[in-house]
Design a protein that fits this description.
Number of strands: 2
Number of helices: 3
Order of helices and strands: HHHEE
Largest sheet: 2 strands, antiparallel
Structural class: mainly alpha
Radius of gyration: 18 Å
């Protein structure tokens, strides 16, 4: 199957671009991105931004699923309690 750079949901493209720039700002590389564009960024910087995007999307998805607990740092985490119904090691 051929790879595609198109998002699964085309209407989410603007939101993904905003998230990408927001994370670049947090990492301190947004000025370079704005002046030179993404094509001049190193693969390490692009990978760092992509990794943070994936991490944030996973956190948002887990939060929407419920079963959250608050951690000392104020971030949310899913509950580590597992029922035997879903524990593949208990059978």
């Amino acid at each position: 199957m051929a790879r595609s750079n198109k998002p699964v949901n085309p209407s989410a493209e603007n939101a993904l671009d905003r998230m990408k720039l927001e994370i670049a700002t947090e990492l301190g590389i947004s000025d370079r991105v704005r002046s030179q564009g993404w094509s001049t960024m190193t693969s390490a910087d692009c990978g760092r931004v992509g990794g943070h995007m994936v991490r944030r999307m996973i956190e948002q998805y887990e939060s929407s699923m419920g079963g959250q607990t608050s951690t000392p740092s104020g971030t949310t985490a899913t509950s580590s309690t597992m029922t035997s119904q879903f524990d593949i090691n208990s059978k």
